[in-house]
Amino acid sequence: EIVLTQSPGTLSLSPGEGASLSCRASQSVRKYLAWYQQRPGQAPRLLIYGASSRATGIPDRFSGSGSGTDFTLTISRLEPEDFAVYYCQEYNTPTSGTFGGGTKVDIK
Amino acid sequence: QLQLQESGPGLVKPSETLSLNCTVSGGSISATTYYWGWIRQPPGKGLEWIGTVYYSGRTYYNPSLTSRVTISVDTSKNQFSLRLNSVTAADTAVYYCARRGYDLLMFDHWGQGTLVTVSS
Questions:
Q1: What's the farthest any 2 CA atoms get from each other in chain A?
Q2: What is the pLDDT of residue B87?
């Protein structure tokens, strides 16, 4: 079973700053990695799939990169609504679906 | 617009069976290009994939839950279901249903989630 490790656990930043979130897989998932945003009290929302493709309606301040075992979600300029928890997920096969432990982006 | 809505008891006793339904509207559960899945989130914790079902009834389960979980589909009701037996307090969580792509297997549409508490 693939294990996804996200870091840091918490990122404290100010609106307007940039954020870089990491997701590391215990074995290669090629480019089958997605990122989700979860605001308090809400369901997760798909941001990025295929490691770097933005989902429908996602602002271009969100970008994803990486392949194999190392991935990054970058938020270029934090807006107030971006303070949330972010999860990565691998989806290499229908039998997989592991999520990372999450990174919380909170207001400094 | 596609919508998914979870329904079922919010309280289940230990050792009993948790049963939830997910009703899909604005799209067909029989679409060949999608799977349908369940994910859960214990209070204050992260997300755990439970399992996935195709309209044909083919299923895939998280190995850590496979001995206790059954996911089924009812195409006549445009609905799929989750059953988790022998529950304990550790199964207390918000349970989400979601749509999963067939070729790109990420979850692209989610229900709002329903909290299920296991307690006597």
A1: 39
A2: 98
Query: What pLDDT does residue B46 have?
Result: 97
Instruction: Please check whether residue B40 is in contact with residue B90, taking contact to mean a CB–CB distance below 8 angstroms.
Output: no
A13: DSSP letter:
E
pLDDT at A23 (0 to 100): 98
The reply to whether residue A99 touches residue B48, judged by beta carbons under 8 angstroms, is yes
Q: How many residues does chain A have?
A: 108
Task: Enter the DSSP assignment of B15.
Answer: T
Q: Which of residues 29-48 of A touch B (CB under 8 A)?
A: 32, 34, 36, 42-46
The parts of chain B modelled with pLDDT lower than 50 are: none
pLDDT in tens, chain A (108 residues): 899 999 999 999 999 999 999 999 999 999 999 999 999 999 999 999 999 999 999 999 999 999 999 999 999 999 999 999 999 999 988 888 999 999 999 999
Give the closest-approach CA distance of A16 to chain B in angstroms.
27
Order the strands of the A53-54 sheet from edge to edge: A10-13, A103-107, A85-90, A33-38, A45-49, A53-54
Q: Is B96 exposed, middle or buried (0-12, 13-18, 19+ CB in 10 A)?
A: buried
Task: Report how far apart, in Å, the C-alpha atoms of B70 and of each of B25, B60, B65, B79 are.
Answer: 22, 10, 9, 14
- Taking the C-alpha atoms of residue B106 and residue A32, their distance in angstroms, rounded to an integer, is 8
Q: What is the C-alpha to C-alpha distance for residues B21 and B61, in angstroms, rounded to an integer?
A: 17
Chain B hits for A96, CB-CB cut-off 8 Å, are 49, 105
